[in-house]
Amino acid sequence: MGELCRRDSALTALDEETLWEMMESHRHRIVRCICPSRLTPYLRQAKVLCQLDEEEVLHSPRLTNSAMRAGHLLDLLKTRGKNGAIAFLESLKFHNPDVYTLVTGLQPDVDFSNFSGLMETSKLTECLAGAIGSLQEELNQEKGQKEVLLRRCQQLQEHLGLAETRAEGLHQLEADHSRMKREVSAHFHEVLRLKDEMLSLSLHYSNALQEKELAASRCRSLQEELYLLKQELQRANMVSSCELELQEQSLRTASDQESGDEELNRLKEENEKLRSLTFSLAEKDILEQSLDEARGSRQELVERIHSLRERAVAAERQREQYWEEKEQTLLQFQKSKMACQLYREKVNALQAQVCELQKERDQAYSARDSAQREISQSLVEKDSLRRQVFELTDQVCELRTQLRQLQAEPPGVLKQEARTREPCPREKQRLVRMHAICPRDDSDCSLVSSTESQLLSDLSATSSRELVDSFRSSSPAPPSQQSLYKRVAEDFGEEPWSFSSCLEIPEGDPGALPGAKAGDPHLDYELLDTADLPQLESSLQPVSPGRLDVSESGVLMRRRPARRILSQVTMLAFQGDALLEQISVIGGNLTGIFIHRVTPGSAADQMALRPGTQIVMVDYEASEPLFKAVLEDTTLEEAVGLLRRVDGFCCLSVKVNTDGYKRLLQDLEAKVATSGDSFYIRVNLAMEGRAKGELQVHCNEVLHVTDTMFQGCGCWHAHRVNSYTMKDTAAHGTIPNYSRAQQQLIALIQDMTQQCTVTRKPSSGGPQKLVRIVSMDKAKASPLRLSFDRGQLDPSRMEGEAWILSSTGSSTCFWAESCLTLVPYTLVRPHRPARPRPVLLVPRAVGKILSEKLCLLQGFKKCLAEYLSQEEYEAWSQRGDIIQEGEVSGGRCWVTRHAVESLMEKNTHALLDVQLDSVCTLHRMDIFPIVIHVSVNEKMAKKLKKGLQRLGTSEEQLLEAARQEEGDLDRAPCLYSSLAPDGWSDLDGLLSCVRQAIADEQKKVVWTEQSPR
């Protein structure tokens, strides 16, 4: 458009058709941006509108919104011809300078001596025109101050909410403490009851032993009786055998009766002897009966003995069981006692934090009171300025009266008075903006009547009548003060979707936006170059839902064609209701987020979104707070979470990346990868991995996460990493995602404090470390999210993870969508230093003893502090080359970067004597020290007694310093090697262990944490 370069004075020389063609080409932008109630007073004074026209434009029931009223105003002005176009452009110069520049291509410089001739020019007109500009500037300043105060108030409310949350947590801890006290007392009474039961059981056991002894004595007596009965039975058997022999002899003698009487007599005598020896048959029956009874009583005694033995065994088993229960009860009592002590210490610490929170709350209250005082003071100042404005209005009315009187006098009298009158001072008083009152439906009449009632007490009848005439007459006059008040009130009464928050693309101006291409009728939407994207974002805001051109189906209609250019970013604005139902995405932080499926017939499909398109950024204004997220290096889990929040009108920045999409599909089909995610984490808690497929993880292990949406939501897929080659090992499985891992960490800490499953002996070196308590600094990040530095990790080209994006578009950490600050996973990056790394030994006292021995060996040397003058110190400190102040009497001695690097260049390990806080400083210098932790206990301290005496340190001081420094190890931004006390027996053995640990750590990959920005 060649007409855009013409002068302002040349606009009046253009014909009517050219002027209206210029405005019609930008009609869409004009009707969306202007406010008709602002322009009608000026147009009425310029004699291109009458009162009826103004009433129809502002209050017609057919015109339901501002855009319709503005369109009707343009139609009315078009019937006025060239004068209507020129008057409309001049009104834009005052009230909408950006629209004036868009239409004419000229800067809205107000030349008070070069009006169009439709209005009478005077010094008063120039003064009021300048006042309008100054009032607009002051209005913008006041709006900016209001936004700053609102943000400050919101921050104070957030701090107050956090303080109240922590106070509720403290009350809960006090309730838990009282509950634990009640449980301890109940356990104590239970122990007393068990002691009484054990005493009664011991009495029963002694009685059973006595009964057992009586049964044994009775058994012995029965055995003696049985022995006697056996002897009697043997004698009876002998007698029966003798009788049988006698019968046989009698039979033999019967045949030999002739042997003689002597033999018979002899036999008779022997028979008598035998009869005297034998018992009678009755006696024999009695003996047999007594023998049976003895046998029966013996069997009963045997059975009773067996039952008593069983009861004795059961009593012994029950006694052992009760003893074990007693030991367990005592152990539970000791654990409960230790837990109470831990809770007491924790409550004391929490009480101290509560005191600090109360101080912070008092400071916040004082800051709020000071802000309120400042606001009240500003209101008082505004009241005084308002009074000054009324006074100036009076002066304006008086000057207008005098001007009309002078105009009514003859020209000769005017010249004579001009000679005699003193010149009016050209300095004008600065006008300030008043608080406007929103007008009612009858805004003009009510505003005029209210203004008249306010001014009647100060103005004369003539001046007030002339003031009202200036509102209602058709004679050209500048906008009055009441008109300005009305415009300010309408500014505050506008709907929230104002034109400043709309993204508008001019239809008729192909060069208005960077990256726009004209003359191509085959394109469907407008493309922006990547280099021009920041400029566009700084000047234009996303389109509001209330100002869109929507078709009958509710889908955004494309307004003009654009050119598809590969690898350039395209901004698409459309109705994204349930966006994840319209599209599905794949990818990750390594490859980017790609559209994988588009629902046919959806709004995304009508906007020509296709599989293979990479989503660069999403902008969604309907949520509170508003958010704009960059998805180029977010994980798949985070991208799905962000896109799930979109449920309404949104803007997507996309680009075509067919090669990356094809590579990702090939990897997924070949099962080389399951997603496009790839990053490394350091685990801060131990996880058992009980379920099938879960990975068992130890605290301080480094894992390579390859999928954040593995088998759905809630778990990640990770590989254990080789410490020397940084390659993924065969051990892989699932781990909880960040939020679930955070809950496990909290539960593990609660179990450790309540049940005391692990005793607090950090220097024992025996049990496996379960947790590493790391918290985020909320002063460096918002309460919702945190962020990490972006960078590239070789060999997998892993870009830094911008995990969660806040409402302002800044990257924040993928863990923290809660007020909790415990960190279960820490993002790490690898390093492979080629030169020998410095060595830092913990505790420092042990490090000093070992440094004296190590510096005698080849390849080790102490890093000495350097003396620096004040000028050198300031210069080196400004460059960031100071590590820490050295412990040398006299001061001005510092451990510097130059000293450490000079030893590293000599292929020597530098032995550092610095604190653990200096590790972060060394990492910023790309120096990665080897941290060796020597576990300390009382037995080990005695072995180092001689070395401690040379340093002037006692064993108690060593143990205390070791406890403090071991607590700082959890906050170290790198891994460390720990030496157990049972691995060496003397100082030489410890020295050998340290050398082996240094050699092993030099071969490993260095993993450092990424700090939040």
Topology diagram in text:
Elements: H1 16-25, H2 27-33, H3 36-45, H4 51-59, H5 66-79, H6 82-95, H7 97-104, H8 123-255, H9 261-277, H10 281-408, H11 411-420, H12 443-455, H13 461-472, H14 481-493, H15 533-539, E1 570-576, H16 579-582, E2 583-588, E3 592-598, H17 603-606, E4 613-620, E5 627-630, H18 636-644, E6 648-656, H19 658-669, E7 679-683, E8 702-707, E9 715-721, E10 728-736, H20 738-755, E11 792-793, E12 798-799, E13 804-805, E14 811-812, E15 825-831, E16 839-842, H21 844-854, E17 860-862, E18 866-867, H22 870-879, E19 882-885, E20 893-896, H23 897-905, E21 909-912, H24 918-924, E22 930-934, H25 938-943, H26 945-951, H27 955-969, E23 977-979, H28 987-1003, E24 1006-1009
Parallel strand pairs: 16-21, 16-22, 17-21, 22-23
Antiparallel strand pairs: 1-6, 2-3, 3-4, 4-5, 4-6, 7-8, 7-15, 8-9, 9-10, 11-12, 13-14, 15-24, 18-20, 19-20
Helix pairs in contact: 1-6, 2-5, 3-4, 3-6, 5-6, 6-7, 8-9, 8-10, 10-13
